[in-house]
Amino acid sequence: MMKVLLVDDEPFIVQGLSVLIDWQKEGYEIAATASNGKEALNYLRGHKVDVIIADIKMPVMTGLELLETIRREHVSEAYFVILSGYNDFVFAQQAIRHKCMEYILKPVEKEELIAVLRKAAKISENSKIDRQNQKVMERAYLARNVLALLFGKYDGLNLEYVRNHMRLSEGVRYIDIEFCDLKEAQEQEDGQLRHLQRRLYQACIDYLKEDEVHCIFDVSQDEKNFDVGFLYCDYMAAKEDCSEREYLQDFRKNLETVLKHPVRMLAGKKVHDISAVAKSYSAACVLNSLEAFRVKKDIYFYEEEVQINQGGIVLCKNSVDALIAAIEQNDKGKIWGSVERLYAEMKQMGVVGDTVNLNINYLLFQLIHLAAQQDDGVNQEEILHYISESSFEEGTVRGSSVHLARFACEYAEYLAQLRKNVSRGVLGDVEKEIRCNYAQNLTLRELSQKYYVNSAYLGQLFRRKYGQSFKDYLNNYRIEQAAARLLRTDDKIYQIAQDVGYKDLDYFINRFIAAKGCTPAKFRKQAGK
């Protein structure tokens, strides 16, 4: 409801205005009345209103004097309407000079007052939209400058803009906020994952309130990572009179309560100033790459996870080579034993973070080389794609050695199938499945289990033959079936969307536009249906 202040020294005028129209129906409420400009001014100093309707001639302070005073002293930005019994252009000029919206002659006509109120409401709504758009643009520009700092590609202008538009303090840390177990939801539509990401972002800014600009949407350059970035500063915990860990834990628990989904935080290395935040961001990325091989936690702090002893970082080459040999032989027993020995060796050295990073990177490099030797039709990009998207059964315990051992066993099976070259016949069976059951919730994992093929390898076969992922192939097939239905039937668009496998109509329309260059309705209309 917009609030109105009525100002007139004649009580019957105020009473008449109060009953002249249905204020509530027009979206207004009369907040207060005053008998002169001075009384109105005192009220405005302590209360906010949207519209002021004032008589031009009053004792103590006139309506024009009230208008001039509130504009000069910036007391109120309310829309001002003058009521006058004088059809004098000089008075009107004075009123307009001080941003008076309307000059109405007495007696006030009902239709004229309603028209003025609706005009004020429309201007107010347009101003609100403009302010919102301006806020969005300013936030987006600030985010661009923050990203420049995070990626280490900034200059003095970027740094100055961030310092001028964001509250900062000593002690800055980049924190990556993401849903736990989101990899298990990768078979969802990308539109659904993006929606989850937007909900996470909204929950973050709702919690941060006046510090909302410290939250950055979609920092990660990885298209498969649906995360939100957060710039933590030490003043945040200080103003809540708690420790950094307590502040972040409360933040995280609030997100989980709102979103009804587990959330984790990856806290990069703390730096002294925003100018060095790229180091913190890089540290958070390291945590992200190592998270799968660690004991599961709600919050990972870089300083706790990455510890380097005085002897420096050590490559456990013999242990890693033994693990690689076990993987190549597809010997599950040897794999588990080799992983345990590798972690025991690293633990004995008293080091964790960067040593784990070095040894895992060495292992993955050797595995890439090994896969390329098994099948020269597989390039390194395909193998990296397999490693990055390799997932495990729901409920798998994500302990450091346990997780690596499960990955190694899965990779051993992958190598075995590369050697067998199981592509013959399998793609034909999968294509038939899509033709017959495209409207169902087909997933690469379920089909790979049905045909006894490693899911990631089956995905590689698809990319190699069709130049696209299984998900894109399935989506494109569904769109083609929808297009045929649009041309051959008069069925409703939402019904066609459901029949070809899309539960979300908006997502279906977006996919259709991407494939056909127009909406389903326009596609049908162009065909003369």
Characterization of the model:
Helix content is 58%, strand content 10%. With 529 residues, the protein is α/β, with parallel strands linked by helices. β1, α1 and β2 (28-34) form a beta-alpha-beta unit.
What share of the residues lie within helices? 55-70%
Strand content: 5-15%
Largest sheet descriptor: 5 strands, parallel
Give the N-to-C terminal Cα separation.
46 Å
Mean pLDDT: 83
Strand order of the largest sheet: 2-1-3-4-5
What gross morphology would you assign? Answer: elongated
Count up the helices.
Answer: 23
SSE-based structural type: alpha/beta
Short note summarizing the structure:
This protein is an alpha/beta fold and 529 residues long. It contains 23 helices and ten strands.
Key terms:
about 525 residues, 10 strands, 23 helices, 5-stranded parallel β-sheet, single chain
Write the layout of secondary structure elements.
Layout: E1 2-7, H1 11-20, E2 28-34, H2 37-44, E3 51-55, H3 63-72, E4 79-84, H4 89-97, E5 100-105, H5 110-150, H6 156-165, E6 172-179, H7 190-208, E7 215-217, E8 228-233, H8 234-239, H9 244-259, E9 263-267, H10 277-290, E10 299-301, H11 302-305, H12 317-329, H13 332-349, H14 353-374, H15 380-389, H16 400-420, H17 426-437, H18 444-450, H19 455-466, H20 470-488, H21 493-499, H22 505-516, H23 520-526
Parallel strand pairs: 1-2, 1-3, 3-4, 4-5, 9-10
Antiparallel strand pairs: 6-8, 6-9, 7-8
